[in-house]
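Sequence in, structure out. Go.
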Amino acid sequence: MKLDYRGHGGTIDQRKHRRATGDLMAVVGTAQGRAVQGRLKDLSLSGARMEASFLLERESEVWLLFRVPHAEAVEHVLAPAKVVRLHHANEETIVYGMRFTEVPERSRAVIDEYVARATGAECVCG
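Output:
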């Protein structure tokens, strides 16, 4: 969440966790049994920003399956998530704010290491 403090020099980022920008392919599984593809444009321990060409409803519960470069290999992360924001970037692309829910500990560690490497920060997961 960004708070607008234009009169005081700009905006202040109030996010809970740091984010790494990227372009990770993700498969999105819906409650209706659909599996569709999107692109994760940023990633954090608490969620992701995803661009896609399909419509999901706000508050929809989905599963995200994506591959994260990790150490010498690539790790698959399966994370339940909820659509918390969406807006149409253009006629073909919808941008979603996805909040992760109950991510397994191993997946959290993989995400944390990816974000730490991308941002030059230290890992926060154990």
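Check: The chain has one domain: 18-119. The radius of gyration is 15 Å.
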